[in-house]
Amino acid sequence: MVEVKVIGSWSSPFVRKVEMALKMKGVEYEYIEEDLRNKSALLLQHNPIHEKVPVLLHNGKPIAESMVILEYIDEVWEGPPILPQDPYDRAMARFWAKFIDDKCTFTMWKACWSTGEEREKLKEEATEGLKILENEIEGKKFFGGDKIGVVDHTANFIAYWFPITADFVGLELMTDDKFPNLCRWANDYINDNFVKENLPDKDGYIAILKTI
Amino acid sequence: MVEVKVIGSWSSPFVRKVEMALKMKGVEYEYIEEDLRNKSALLLQHNPIHEKVPVLLHNGKPIAESMVILEYIDEVWEGPPILPQDPYDRAMARFWAKFIDDKCTFTMWKACWSTGEEREKLKEEATEGLKILENEIEGKKFFGGDKIGVVDHTANFIAYWFPITADFVGLELMTDDKFPNLCRWANDYINDNFVKENLPDKDGYIAILKTI
Description:
Order of helices and strands of chain A: EHEHEEHHHHHHHH
Radius of gyration of chain A: 17 Å
Domain GST N-terminal (chains A, B): 2-81
GO molecular function, one term (chains A, B): glutathione transferase activity
Number of strands of chain A: 4
Low-confidence stretches of chain A: none
Oligomer: homodimer
EC number (chains A, B): 2.5.1.18
Number of helices of chain A: 10
Largest sheet of chain A: 4 strands, mixed
Organism (chains A, B): Perilla frutescens var. hirtella (Perilla citriodora)
Structural class of chain A: alpha+beta
Helix content of chain A: 55-70%
Keywords (chains A, B): Transferase
């Protein structure tokens, strides 16, 4: 019996983050692709509250919410740490991961799929969040410092999925002239070998965008 | 020099949660009351992103976001654990703390201070969240099991501040007939001796509500 399973969706940045964490730790797992337009009994049983992916199943016990899953993976399995070791650095990582999840990702996604006044409002909101990140990444290679860390992976939507999506829908937001540090960071992040292997290919992702 | 300081507000459930965690660990700290209508340079310097309380200062280094602060306190100081020890139980505690913070507290607070259609919408949303908690607490004394834990403290707004606020503004929501388990839990929680000592007195809180 495979003791670790991930219920996921190919095109979810949150799922990719969990998969990268498992791979970093060298944990073997079974991946179960979920059809989010026709949710499975398995998903509804194991994440009845949010009905969202990712869900980690460890010996049959379910855990939902990607950051909660990452903390769990870090505590249960040996191997390279997911969160920083120093308590203050851990607190900072948790703070920034929460900021990205709460203030950036969803707003940026919604901005892509809205129009008119609503889009302008969301663009403004997203710009506020990105300005803060632009400031935070200034002078650093990655959010985690010299090496890619949990905050970088949490921001994988901003680095990879968002630019493709924005381009696809014709949204101008995270431009090189306005966010030079963030764009530099995004480029470094997606060109890291491990990250590259764990992000979906662009054409496949665009094919999915065409169905939205 | 006092090494630990809390920038707080007397009437913030998030601040009380942090203070309770410090007291559980036996950590001496200096409390600095913040005037949220006229924010201090100290607050703006140490939490420039959110400009909110609580902020924990440890040897001058600031940490914001109450759950991030709690994890930090638990990692840095000896004493009774704040989060459960078992990784799966910890994951569940993090999941529920996040659920309460994201889906209940703010919506319930906004429902108190809105009117008409907006209030009805918020009431509905809050009811959805409370139903899930009602189900979760069924058959358990506290969210933490037999003993009060981090999820109970995270829900301190629901147990104490909300009923007083709802009564003050004339909002009917968390009634005994609709949420018997939650109301029973709230009563047990606020009558715990340690909790009671760490919540503001009702008259003082109502005096503050009158100024809103």
